[in-house]
From TrEMBL, chain A:
<protein>
    <submittedName>
        <fullName>Purine-binding chemotaxis protein CheW</fullName>
    </submittedName>
</protein>
<dbReference type="InterPro" id="IPR039315">
    <property type="entry name" value="CheW"/>
</dbReference>
<dbReference type="InterPro" id="IPR036061">
    <property type="entry name" value="CheW-like_dom_sf"/>
</dbReference>
<feature type="domain" description="CheW-like">
    <location>
        <begin position="14"/>
        <end position="155"/>
    </location>
</feature>
<dbReference type="InterPro" id="IPR002545">
    <property type="entry name" value="CheW-lke_dom"/>
</dbReference>
<dbReference type="Pfam" id="PF01584">
    <property type="entry name" value="CheW"/>
</dbReference>
TrEMBL record, chain B:
<feature type="domain" description="HPt">
    <location>
        <begin position="1"/>
        <end position="103"/>
    </location>
</feature>
<dbReference type="Pfam" id="PF01627">
    <property type="entry name" value="Hpt"/>
</dbReference>
<dbReference type="InterPro" id="IPR010808">
    <property type="entry name" value="CheA_P2-bd"/>
</dbReference>
<dbReference type="InterPro" id="IPR036641">
    <property type="entry name" value="HPT_dom_sf"/>
</dbReference>
<keyword id="KW-0145">Chemotaxis</keyword>
<dbReference type="InterPro" id="IPR051315">
    <property type="entry name" value="Bact_Chemotaxis_CheA"/>
</dbReference>
<dbReference type="InterPro" id="IPR002545">
    <property type="entry name" value="CheW-lke_dom"/>
</dbReference>
<feature type="domain" description="CheW-like">
    <location>
        <begin position="568"/>
        <end position="697"/>
    </location>
</feature>
<feature type="region of interest" description="Disordered">
    <location>
        <begin position="133"/>
        <end position="154"/>
    </location>
</feature>
Length: 156, 697
């Protein structure tokens, strides 16, 4: 991009992330995938479904499958509280999918150079869904790779 | 000209014409002398050509044009119909269909010229012509009017009412009516001037009654290289022709004597005006007009039915009556709403009464049920659109396999949900191919078995309760269960000992296993083993099932059972622990209360003995991984479900009742779940899962 003098203007391309907490860690979700954030509602268990799916919910007349990130990352099971929220993600392939988070904190904007992409390469349950660490002041935020969270569904 | 907006109509109508041609050529093969059929074919081919031309699909136009030539010769009895010709015509139709597919995909006809086909057609045409050369020649000379309209010669004119009456008047006053088509040389610079000179020359002999294009357009040079005139004159034809030819830069003149009758069928309703001009030519005699009109009607009808493929958007053509019914119910719904509003008002005034409130709710219930039914009906289309391509397919197969066979269809008007109809084509086609290839024996074998040499395949559709049954029946050899058994042992699916105890039905079920083919050799018709299992899974995906009945030596029947509709079903709501589940009412046989003491054990499985049947018990709580119950009750509530001839008893904790439910998908993520095939939202907003009874067996 150039200004009126023809000089390059460095404009930081930032991406907005919704910061949520799961357990005692904070995670960032690319806001462009987020369709909606809703309160906890009645979950209907689906027998024989993949283990990380807790069930389905009724989102204004639509049936939306609900995924537990905790189960996905092998953490202890969710405890639903007043501040537990369901983040409804929307993707081309999977349609709507809800994920359960302990709390929704805030929305932050991070530029690419504020994200450390050199995360460890280990394939532990937890890190394979993370594609970077963002810095928000003193806090570190693990950026979740949404496509890998959802894509793996087919394989499982 | 931008014609893209007409593309949908074009595709729709072309589909219709192709279907009409397919059907009629089939009839023509059987009744080569049937003039009505030939005329209808001619009509359809002609419209096809006109439409392709209008849309600028030149290659398609060329092919249809050459086909039309052939039909023309058939009509004039210059060519005899034989199966060879029919084959060529069918491959032409396939080619046209291919064009259409390309048009659908790309809005362009593609670049396949189909030269070989055109060559074949023309060879045939020439072959036919040499068979009766003298006749042909005489015909061309004596009646140039019969010359191909679009290829060369006279292009017939359309006239309006005023001109028509002028022509009639002129003829009645004893004048000759002549039609001229004047061709101007390509390099002519002042076409309008030449045309003017022609007019001048002609006017010396008589009065020009009509121009095509209009005289204004001709003056403005808005015409190609030819234009037409209708002239009333007291003189002979030849001097006029000579006079026209005397004008320089005129390449030639086509002329003929005409009469007012030839201008009569102009009121024929036509979609594209460009085709109209040519259209009139095909109906030289007024006697043909009603037939032609009939043809239009037929093709319109089949066009209506033939909308089974998604074009740009998936559409359903709806009978206006169905919409009227819908509208009526919606107005009733509004009345019901208003009654409720007024009731709640009077409630506030403290004068409400519970009885009338209840009445209104019942009323509302009735309306919504009717509404549901009507909306469902709107989605219903006859299976005709799918099955009407089958006679052609069987004919082709019959020739390919050298086995004479006949397809008899009934119940084509049976209606099914649009979604089901869209997807039922492939499985049915497969079953028919299967019958043709494996079912029907060779003529020699049939003779030996004392059967008529021509095999019959019967496709029969009818409604049965909430299901539609489609039967594919053949009078062939039937399934050789011994051979299937051998094959199953060979494939290691069962041990020889196990095989001994298999029932007829269990053996036949092997045929539905993936990559289990009985064909001795692989043909391009069937035998690759990717067949019946796909049929089965396709049909089950639609919520239906397939069963087979076969008697060795006398034939096989495949019975396909499909639900009328997919979206909304009647279901029985049951409770397992504190979870609610829905079971489609269609698959429920009855509900029984069984004392625990009645449970018997067969091979360590729980069964119940009910009215002479042994029915396996399925504990839904275990199957659904519910929390185990603390105590076993003395009596079990058992829902007996059936799939085909199989029964099973589902043990539930409690019955809630019958309810109309809207089926919703669980979403892709949990779709691989076999037991649950959907979910529904209950009145209180809770989600209940639908148990797929088919998966239990």
């Amino acid at each position: 991009m150039k200004d009126e003098n023809g000089l390059d203007v460095v404009e930081k391309e930032t991406v907005q992330y919704i910061v949520v907490s799961i357990g005692n860690e904070q995670y960032g979700l690319d806001i462009s995938y987020v369709d909606n954030i809703v309160r906890m509602c009645k979950i209907t268990r689906v027998p024989k479904a993949p283990a990380h799916y807790i069930g389905v919910i009724n989102l204004r007349g639509e049936i939306v499958p609900l995924m537990s990130l905790r189960r996905k990352m092998n953490l202890e099971d969710d405890v639903f509280t007043d501040i537990t929220r369901i983040i409804i993600l929307k993707t081309e392939e999977q349609g709507l999918v809800g994920i359960v988070v302990d709390e929704v904190k805030e929305v932050i904007a991070l530029a690419e150079d504020e994200i450390d992409r050199n995360t460890q390469n280990s394939q532990s349950d937890k890190t394979q869904y993370i594609n970077g660490i963002g810095k928000n002041g003193d806090e570190l935020i693990s950026i979740l790779e949404i496509s890998s969270i959802l894509d793996e569904v087919d394989a499982s | 000209m931008d014609v893209s907006q007409y593309l949908d109509i074009f595709i729709d109508e072309t589909n219709g014409h192709i279907q009409a041609l397919n059907d009629n050529i089939m009839i023509l093969e059987k009744e080569p002398e049937n003039k009505d059929v030939i005329n209808e074919i001619f009509r359809a081919a002609h419209s096809l050509k006109g439409m392709a031309g209008t849309m600028g699909f030149k290659k398609m136009q060329r092919l249809t044009h050459d086909m039309e030539n052939v039909f023309q010769e058939i009509r004039n009895d210059n060519i005899k119909v034989n199966s060879n010709l029919i084959d060529i015509l069918f491959s032409c139709l396939d080619a046209i269909e291919e064009y259409l597919e390309t048009v659908k995909a790309t809005s362009d006809e593609g670049d396949n010229g189909n030269e070989a086909l055109i060559q074949q057609l023309n060879d045939y045409l020439n072959g036919g012509a040499t068979a009766a050369p003298a006749e042909e020649a005489v015909e061309t000379k004596a009646a140039p009017a019969k010359e191909e309209a679009a290829s060369d010669g006279l292009s017939h004119m359309e006239v309006d009412d005023v001109t028509y009456s002028k022509i009639k008047e002129a003829q009645e006053s004893g004048l000759h009516i002549y039609e001229f088509t004047v061709h101007i040389q390509k390099d002519c610079l002042l076409k309008a001037a030449r045309a003017f000179l022609v007019f001048k020359a002609v006017e010396d002999f008589g009065e020009i009654l009509a121009y095509n294009p209009s005289s204004q357009d001709i003056e403005d040079e808005k015409f190609d290289l030819d234009f037409s005139l209708v002239v009333a004159s007291s003189q002979e034809l030849q001097p006029i022709v000579d006079a026209i030819k005397a004008v320089s830069e005129i390449e030639g003149v086509d002329a003929k004597e005409s009469s007012h009758e030839e201008f009569m069928q102009e009121e024929e309703p036509e979609a594209a005006p460009e085709t109209k001009q040519e259209e009139t030519k095909t109906e030289g005699k007024p006697a043909e007009a009603p037939k032609a009109a009939k043809a239009t009607k037929t093709s319109a009808k089949s066009a209506k039915a033939n909308n089974n493929k998604p074009v740009t958007a998936r559409t359903v053509r709806v009978d206006i009556e169905k919409l009227d019914a819908l509208m009526n119910q919606v107005s009733e719904l509004i009345i019901a709403k208003n009654s409720l509003v007024s009731l709640s008002d009077s409630e506030q005034n403290g004068e409400g009464n519970n009885q009338s409130f209840h009445d209104q709710i019942e009323y509302l219930e009735r309306i919504t049920t009717n509404l549901h039914e009507s909306v469902m009906k709107v989605r219903m289309v006859p299976i005709e659109s799918v099955v009407n391509k089958f006679p052609r397919m069987i004919r082709d197969l019959s020739r390919k396999l050298n086995k004479p066979m006949e397809l008899y269809m009934s119940g084509e008007e049976t209606e099914l949900d649009r979604t089901v109809v869209d997807q039922i084509g492939d499985p049915l086609q497969h079953l028919l191919r299967n019958s043709a290839d494996h079912g029907i024996e060779s003529p020699e074998e049939r003779k030996k078995a004392g059967k008529p040499e021509t095999g019959s395949i019967i496709l029969n559709a009818f409604q049965e309760g909430n299901n539609v049954i489609i039967e594919v029946k053949d009078d062939g050899a039937g399934i050789d269960t011994e051979k299937v058994k051998e094959k199953a042992i060979e494939r290691g699916l069962v041990t020889p000992e196990q095989a001994e105890n298999l029932t007829q039905k269990e053996i036949i079920d092997f045929l539905f296993m993936p990559s289990f083919s009985m064909a001795k050799k692989i043909t391009d018709i069937s035998g690759r083993g990717v067949g019946l299992d796909v049929v089965k899974s396709n049909i089950e995906a639609l919520g239906g099932d397939v069963t087979v009945k076969s008697v060795k030596g006398t034939g096989t029947t495949f019975i396909v059972r499909l639900p009328l509709t997919l979206a909304i079903i009647q279901a029985l709501m049951v409770e397992v622990r504190d979870e609610k589940y829905a079971i489609a009412l269609g698959s429920i046989q009855n509900i029984e209360n069984i004392p625990v003491s009645d449970i018997k054990y067969v091979q360590a499985e729980e069964v119940i003995h009910l009215r002479g049947m042994v029915i396996p018990l399925i504990r839904l709580d275990q199957m659904l991984d519910s929390a185990p119950s603390e105590e076993e009750p003395d009596n079990l509530t058992v829902v007996i479900v059936r799939k085909g001839d199989n029964y099973a008893g589902l043990v539930v904790d409690d019955l809630i009742g019958q309810q109309e439910i809207v089926i919703k998908s669980l979403g892709k993520c949990i779709d691989n779940n076999k037991i649950i095939n959907g979910a529904t939202i209950l009145g209180d907003g809770e989600v209940a899962l639908i148990i797929d009874v088919n998966a239990i067996f």
